[in-house]
Amino acid sequence: MSVAGSVRAVTTLRLTEMKQRGEKIAMLTTYDYSTAKIVDAAGVDVILVGDSAANVMAGYETTLPITLDMMIYHARSVTRGAKRALVVVDLPFGTYQGNSKVALDSAIRIMKETEADAVKMEGGEEILESVQRILSAGIPVMAHLGLTPQSIHKFGTYNVRAKEEAEAEKLIRDAHLLEEAGCFAVVLEKIPAALAERVTKELHMPTIGIGAGGKVDGQVLVIHDMLGITNDFSPRFLRRYANLHDVMSEAISHYVDDVKNEDFPNEKEQY
Ligand code: KIV
To answer: Which of 47, 114, 198, 263 suits a disulfide with 258, CB 3.0-4.6 Å?
Structure first.
């Protein structure tokens, strides 16, 4: 929903139609109001309020510590800035695994308190009951398979997932189960391009890739990475579209110099 209470221009149905037409879906993470306005106006179709906020906003090593209250704060800020893009919010670690009633309560809090359009959940068959319960309350769910960072302590590494046949077969099974349950899209993170292509061909719901090659229905990146605000994370799949780290550092150093040299403010910059 938009701030005015009307449905945003990009809906879950529109994403399905885009897949049918072969039109690619552009998705990007965002965590605050001012950036959401820029991202939305630039034509991004889906804004993900990702739990990667734990890393790039809060400085945690993993996504596990971020809480539901923190996600709601970020999501509420983003939905005030997004008029067109569909806004999807990550359910954080510990708010949906294992207990479908808790999962439903978490999803309802996000929908009621943030005016977002959908939630995203990591995992397959293990979380199916929670996914079904949330869907049955009329809340759209985006799935997330492959590298699922909330399970980092189980994997022990951020390397490519599903390279072995057994894990690839499970991923395909999970994707079908989640589609049959009624998910409207699935993120495929860091899996072989050929596997992502196969899943994309077999599913009716759109697939959104991150490190999953080009034969998927859309792409997602973490905005701090693609804008080059972070400069210490360079996986093969990441394309940097700017070097804001250097732009910001230079501007801030310049400001510090101007203050120290009493060059700022000048006569025109005062009352
Ligand atoms: O939290 C996040 O940013 C994500 C994307 C990497 C898909 O889940």
So the answer is: 263
What pLDDT, on the 0 to 100 scale, is given for residue 25? 98
pLDDT for the residue 16: 98
Most informative mutation of 147, 187, 191 for ligand 1 (most atoms within 8 A of CB): 187
Crossing angle of helices 165-181/193-202, nearest 10°?
A: 30
Name residues contacting ligand 1 (CB within 6 A): 29, 48, 50-52, 90, 187, 189, 210, 220, 222
**CATH, domain range 12-240:** 3.20.20.60
Q: Which atom of ligand 1 is nearest to the CA of 63?
A: 1
Mean pLDDT by 10 residues, the chain (271 residues): 68 98 98 98 98 98 98 98 98 96 98 98 98 98 98 95 98 98 98 98 98 98 98 95 98 98 98 98
Strand pairing category for 207-210 and 185-189: parallel
Per-residue pLDDT at 174: 98
Q: Using most ligand atoms within 8 A of CB, pick from 49, 62, 90 the residue to mutate for ligand 1.
A: 90
Burial class (CB in 10 A: 0-12, 13-18, 19+), 70: middle
Q: Which atom of ligand 1 is nearest to the CA of 51?
A: 1
Residue intervals of the chain classified under CATH 3.20.20.60 are: 12-240
Give the start-end residues of each E strand in 44-154.
Answer: 46-49, 86-90, 118-122, 141-146
Predicted confidence at residue 5, as pLDDT, reads 55
Q: Indicate which residue's Cα is closest to atom 5 of ligand 1.
A: 50
Location of structure tokens 């869907």: 135
Q: For residue 150, what pLDDT is reported?
A: 97
CB 133 within 8 A of CB 101: yes
